[in-house]
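Example record

One chain of 309 residues, shown exactly as stored in the release files.
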Amino acid sequence: MIRSPITKKVIVRSGLRMLLPALILLGSFTAWAQDAPSVKAAPDYEKRSSIQAVDGFVYLSEDRTLADTRAAAYSVAKRQALEMAKTYVQSKTKVTNYVMEYDMIWSESEGMVTILEQKDYGIENNTRYHVWIKAEVEYSLKPKKPIPSESMDMDPSAPLTVKVWTDKKMYKEGEAIQVQIRGNKDFYAKIIDITASGDIIQLLPNDYRKINFFKKETIYTVPDTVDRFSLIVSPPFGQDKIVVYASELPMGDIKLAPLGNGLNKYTGTQQTFADETRDLSLAPENNATPFQGAEFYEAAWIIATEQKH
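Predicted structure tokens for this chain:
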């Protein structure tokens, strides 16, 4: 629950309660974080992808209906998005040892290309049909060795990776929790807590720490000294899932409801939140050259909470 130590008024229930102001518990956690083998913190779930903006063109033909021509243009755009994503990610992966230790697994199916946004420009110059899509192409990494190097994916020249972890996986009632994140390259991010009761609470950015850009190889702590809340285990118990959404480019704005203590709550589902984070601007202002694409990374860290016996 979220509770003020002054008024003791209960605002919202969740598996974690968030207190104002932040408790002075940062010393021991911060000391641990500085020496922590964070590269060993394997996420409970991760999703790698590349987001591309692509035009699709198909020339008109008497042998094909307009509807079929339109569908063919979208098919062309999706195939191009797949190829562009491969080229983009592989061109940014410059670590020789990394390439030797991991394979990038790409699906060749258009069905694995998710259209995030689309525009139908119709017939142009009476010769071709024009569509535009912003598409997400997923891929995975497969180690070539049984035990790959633990720090390889944290190399700045490897694909975007953001580690998220806590000091343990099981917490008892009344214990304080701090979340740590660290990326292998500069990145933008949103961090949410999906509580045991199903609430989706955005931890960063928050009203008192509006940070959404993070420097590579730097450990960030949530909550930190400037935050106005602490994460304390309280009923209902179960599982909390900390999810990090990270990208090379700023993410879309997401409508949130004020929750108190500088925190905000998302009233939709985790899937719709994930979809909205992918609203990246691949077309800069002032008619500058559009970005070729962007790496996107999603990772989850699950902790369990239980009653103190």
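Notes: The chain has two domains: 2-46+156-306, 49-143.
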